[in-house]
Amino acid sequence: MNGPTDRFVLPARILHWLMAALILAMLFIGAGMVSTVNDRYPELLAWHRPIGIAILILAVIRLGVRVTHRPPPLPADVPAMQAAAARASHYVLYGLMIAMPLIGWAMQSAGGYPVVMWKGFDLYPILPHNIIVYGQLRRLHGLFAYAFFLLILVHLAAALVHAWIRRDGVFQSMSGGSRT
After folding, report:
1. Which residues of 8-45 are buried (b: 16+ CB within 10 A; e: fewer)?
2. Is 82 inside any structural domain?
3. Which among 54, 114, 115, 151 is placed 20 to 30 Å from 107, CA to CA?
Protein backbone atom coordinates (compact mmCIF):
# COMPACT_ATOMS: atom_id res chain seq x y z
CA MET A 1 0.00 0.00 0.00
CA ASN A 2 1.04 3.51 -0.60
CA GLY A 3 1.85 5.82 2.27
CA PRO A 4 -0.49 8.54 3.53
CA THR A 5 -1.08 11.58 1.38
CA ASP A 6 -3.09 14.77 1.71
CA ARG A 7 -5.67 13.72 -0.87
CA PHE A 8 -7.18 10.68 -2.53
CA VAL A 9 -5.36 9.34 -5.59
CA LEU A 10 -6.70 10.51 -8.95
CA PRO A 11 -8.44 7.21 -9.86
CA ALA A 12 -10.29 7.29 -6.52
CA ARG A 13 -11.41 10.88 -7.09
CA ILE A 14 -12.57 10.18 -10.66
CA LEU A 15 -14.44 7.05 -9.58
CA HIS A 16 -16.01 8.88 -6.62
CA TRP A 17 -17.48 11.70 -8.69
CA LEU A 18 -18.48 9.49 -11.62
CA MET A 19 -20.23 7.09 -9.28
CA ALA A 20 -21.84 9.95 -7.36
CA ALA A 21 -23.44 11.16 -10.59
CA LEU A 22 -24.54 7.64 -11.57
CA ILE A 23 -25.93 6.84 -8.12
CA LEU A 24 -27.88 10.11 -7.95
CA ALA A 25 -29.26 9.38 -11.41
CA MET A 26 -30.25 5.92 -10.21
CA LEU A 27 -32.04 7.33 -7.19
CA PHE A 28 -34.10 9.64 -9.42
CA ILE A 29 -34.74 6.91 -11.99
CA GLY A 30 -35.73 4.47 -9.22
CA ALA A 31 -38.05 7.05 -7.64
CA GLY A 32 -39.62 7.62 -11.05
CA MET A 33 -40.06 3.89 -11.53
CA VAL A 34 -41.99 3.44 -8.30
CA SER A 35 -43.99 6.66 -8.50
CA THR A 36 -47.74 6.41 -8.66
CA VAL A 37 -48.98 5.91 -12.23
CA ASN A 38 -46.05 5.84 -14.58
CA ASP A 39 -46.32 5.02 -18.27
CA ARG A 40 -42.55 5.51 -18.65
CA TYR A 41 -41.65 2.53 -16.45
CA PRO A 42 -40.22 0.39 -19.30
CA GLU A 43 -38.05 3.29 -20.50
CA LEU A 44 -36.80 4.02 -16.97
CA LEU A 45 -36.10 0.33 -16.37
CA ALA A 46 -34.13 0.21 -19.62
CA TRP A 47 -31.82 2.86 -18.10
CA HIS A 48 -31.88 1.50 -14.56
CA ARG A 49 -30.52 -1.96 -15.38
CA PRO A 50 -27.33 -1.04 -17.30
CA ILE A 51 -26.53 1.88 -15.01
CA GLY A 52 -26.87 -0.47 -12.03
CA ILE A 53 -24.45 -2.95 -13.58
CA ALA A 54 -22.05 -0.11 -14.44
CA ILE A 55 -22.18 0.97 -10.78
CA LEU A 56 -21.43 -2.61 -9.70
CA ILE A 57 -18.38 -2.81 -11.98
CA LEU A 58 -17.14 0.64 -10.95
CA ALA A 59 -17.66 -0.19 -7.26
CA VAL A 60 -15.49 -3.30 -7.54
CA ILE A 61 -12.79 -1.27 -9.31
CA ARG A 62 -13.13 1.48 -6.71
CA LEU A 63 -12.81 -1.02 -3.89
CA GLY A 64 -9.60 -2.27 -5.49
CA VAL A 65 -8.25 1.28 -5.62
CA ARG A 66 -9.26 1.81 -1.99
CA VAL A 67 -7.47 -1.36 -0.86
CA THR A 68 -4.29 -0.56 -2.75
CA HIS A 69 -4.13 3.18 -1.95
CA ARG A 70 -4.68 4.35 1.59
CA PRO A 71 -7.10 7.24 1.93
CA PRO A 72 -5.78 10.40 3.55
CA PRO A 73 -6.13 10.41 7.33
CA LEU A 74 -8.82 12.46 8.98
CA PRO A 75 -7.61 15.52 10.87
CA ALA A 76 -6.28 14.68 14.33
CA ASP A 77 -8.96 16.78 16.04
CA VAL A 78 -11.86 14.69 14.65
CA PRO A 79 -13.38 12.93 17.70
CA ALA A 80 -12.86 9.17 17.81
CA MET A 81 -16.61 8.46 17.61
CA GLN A 82 -16.94 10.59 14.48
CA ALA A 83 -13.91 8.90 12.90
CA ALA A 84 -15.42 5.50 13.69
CA ALA A 85 -18.78 6.60 12.24
CA ALA A 86 -17.01 7.83 9.09
CA ARG A 87 -15.24 4.49 8.68
CA ALA A 88 -18.42 2.52 9.30
CA SER A 89 -20.45 4.66 6.91
CA HIS A 90 -17.87 4.12 4.17
CA TYR A 91 -18.03 0.34 4.69
CA VAL A 92 -21.82 0.51 4.40
CA LEU A 93 -21.60 2.75 1.30
CA TYR A 94 -19.28 0.27 -0.41
CA GLY A 95 -21.51 -2.60 0.67
CA LEU A 96 -24.59 -0.94 -0.77
CA MET A 97 -22.82 0.05 -4.00
CA ILE A 98 -22.14 -3.64 -4.55
CA ALA A 99 -25.24 -5.18 -2.94
CA MET A 100 -27.87 -3.00 -4.62
CA PRO A 101 -27.00 -3.97 -8.21
CA LEU A 102 -26.53 -7.63 -7.24
CA ILE A 103 -29.91 -7.69 -5.51
CA GLY A 104 -31.50 -5.98 -8.51
CA TRP A 105 -29.91 -8.49 -10.88
CA ALA A 106 -30.97 -11.40 -8.67
CA MET A 107 -34.48 -9.94 -8.36
CA GLN A 108 -34.85 -9.63 -12.12
CA SER A 109 -33.49 -13.15 -12.58
CA ALA A 110 -35.93 -14.58 -10.02
CA GLY A 111 -38.76 -12.70 -11.73
CA GLY A 112 -37.84 -14.26 -15.06
CA TYR A 113 -36.92 -10.89 -16.54
CA PRO A 114 -33.75 -10.46 -18.58
CA VAL A 115 -31.22 -7.85 -17.52
CA VAL A 116 -30.82 -6.11 -20.86
CA MET A 117 -27.60 -4.16 -21.07
CA TRP A 118 -28.26 -3.02 -24.62
CA LYS A 119 -30.14 -4.47 -27.57
CA GLY A 120 -28.83 -7.96 -28.19
CA PHE A 121 -26.90 -8.32 -24.93
CA ASP A 122 -28.62 -9.70 -21.83
CA LEU A 123 -26.84 -10.71 -18.65
CA TYR A 124 -27.01 -14.31 -17.58
CA PRO A 125 -29.63 -14.89 -14.85
CA ILE A 126 -28.00 -15.42 -11.45
CA LEU A 127 -31.05 -17.04 -9.84
CA PRO A 128 -33.68 -19.45 -11.14
CA HIS A 129 -37.19 -18.17 -11.76
CA ASN A 130 -39.05 -18.04 -8.43
CA ILE A 131 -41.80 -15.49 -7.91
CA ILE A 132 -41.59 -15.72 -4.10
CA VAL A 133 -37.87 -14.94 -4.14
CA TYR A 134 -38.57 -12.16 -6.63
CA GLY A 135 -41.03 -10.55 -4.22
CA GLN A 136 -38.64 -10.81 -1.29
CA LEU A 137 -35.75 -9.36 -3.28
CA ARG A 138 -37.94 -6.56 -4.60
CA ARG A 139 -38.83 -5.56 -1.04
CA LEU A 140 -35.16 -5.80 0.02
CA HIS A 141 -34.04 -3.74 -2.99
CA GLY A 142 -36.53 -1.03 -2.03
CA LEU A 143 -35.55 -1.00 1.64
CA PHE A 144 -31.85 -0.84 0.76
CA ALA A 145 -32.59 2.01 -1.67
CA TYR A 146 -34.12 4.06 1.17
CA ALA A 147 -31.19 3.24 3.44
CA PHE A 148 -28.76 4.15 0.65
CA PHE A 149 -30.53 7.47 0.09
CA LEU A 150 -30.38 8.31 3.80
CA LEU A 151 -26.71 7.36 4.01
CA ILE A 152 -25.95 9.52 0.97
CA LEU A 153 -27.66 12.47 2.68
CA VAL A 154 -25.54 11.90 5.81
CA HIS A 155 -22.40 11.59 3.66
CA LEU A 156 -23.25 14.81 1.83
CA ALA A 157 -23.98 16.61 5.10
CA ALA A 158 -20.65 15.48 6.56
CA ALA A 159 -18.82 16.61 3.41
CA LEU A 160 -20.45 20.03 3.63
CA VAL A 161 -19.58 20.34 7.32
CA HIS A 162 -15.95 19.63 6.45
CA ALA A 163 -16.03 22.04 3.49
CA TRP A 164 -17.96 24.98 4.96
CA ILE A 165 -17.74 24.77 8.74
CA ARG A 166 -14.60 22.92 9.75
CA ARG A 167 -12.64 23.90 6.64
CA ASP A 168 -10.17 21.18 7.54
CA GLY A 169 -9.28 19.95 4.04
CA VAL A 170 -11.29 16.73 4.15
CA PHE A 171 -13.58 17.86 1.33
CA GLN A 172 -10.63 19.08 -0.72
CA SER A 173 -8.97 15.67 -0.39
CA MET A 174 -11.74 14.24 -2.60
CA SER A 175 -12.42 17.32 -4.73
CA GLY A 176 -8.79 17.50 -5.81
CA GLY A 177 -7.94 20.78 -4.13
CA SER A 178 -5.10 21.25 -1.67
CA ARG A 179 -5.69 20.35 1.98
CA THR A 180 -3.85 23.34 3.37
Report:
1. bbeebbebbeebeebbeebeebbeebeeeeeeeeeebe
2. yes
3. 151
Pair 16, 171: CB distance under 8 Å: no
Backbone φ and ψ for 5, nearest 5 degrees, come out as: -140, 175
Rounded CA-CA distance 120/115 in Å is 11
Residue 142: inside a domain: yes
Q: Decide: 163 and 151 in contact? Cβ < 8 Å.
A: no
Query: What residue numbers bound the domain in which 102 lies?
Result: 10-175
The model's pTM: 0.90
Q: Judge whether 3 lies within some domain.
A: no
Q: pLDDT below 70 — which residues of the chain?
A: 1-5, 36-37, 178-180
Give pLDDT, residue 40: 85
Question: Is the distance from CB of 106 to CB of 137 less than 8 angstroms?
Answer: yes
Q: Which domain CATH number covers 152?
A: 1.20.950.20
Q: What is the pLDDT of residues 18-35, one digit of tens each?
A: 999 999 999 899 888 888
% pLDDT > 70, the chain:
93
Task: Say if 180 falls within a structural domain.
Answer: no
| Cα–Cα separations (whole angstroms), residue 26 to 23, 43, 149, 165 | 5, 13, 10, 30
